[in-house]
Write a structure and sequence with these properties.
The protein has 6 helices and 4 strands, in the order βαββαβαααα.
């Protein structure tokens, strides 16, 4: 089982400065109007590969905001395929570490480990479902699943929203 960690921008940058005795690959998601996070790959921090993506935390394109594309998802699947046997851990980060990275990270968990409930049960995460569906579909297209994993999506999303609202005291 490969460990997948979901972080925010600041945590991911801090992670890159710390020594680690394991190998990691980072999927770095930044807003379309923000600068990329710069990660140095070296023996001390264990970073072996970085995929940089730019899309916003939206369900559809609107004015100057752009959602994840099928091409982004295909690049994620290619990156995971290339690195899954070379690293111990995938780090997925976005600006806040709550929505886009949670959606992408959950889809990777489902594809690699068969289970993504840790993300959907976590009241600190609220996966962007466009990201989740798009990446999961790319894994389906790449032959990762014998059965369609999409059937559970609505239930997962509803359960997560209830937990998110309770945690954040939203009625």
């Amino acid at each position: 089982m490969i460990d997948i960690r979901i972080l925010n921008r600041k945590e991911a940058k801090k992670f890159s400065y710390e020594p680690h005795d394991f190998k990691t690959a980072i999927i770095s998601i930044t807003d379309t109007d923000k600068a990329d996070v710069v990660f140095e790959k070296n023996e001390t921090n264990g970073i072996r590969a970085v995929l940089k993506l730019k899309f916003d935390d939206v369900e559809r394109d609107y004015k100057n905001e752009h959602c994840i594309t099928k091409e982004d998802a295909e690049n994620i699947v290619k990156f995971v395929n290339k690195n899954k046997n070379k690293v111990d851990k995938f780090i997925v980060h976005c600006e806040a570490g709550v929505s886009r990275s949670a959606g992408v990270g959950a889809a990777i968990m489902k594809a690699l480990n068969g289970d993504d409930w840790d993300v959907f049960k976590n009241p600190l995460k609220c996966p962007n479902m466009k990201c989740y569906r798009t990446v999961l579909n790319a894994f389906v297209d790449a032959g990762y699943f014998d059965e369609d994993p999409m059937e559970e999506i609505k239930f997962k999303e509803e359960a997560n929203i209830v937990k998110w609202k309770e945690f954040n005291e939203i009625e």
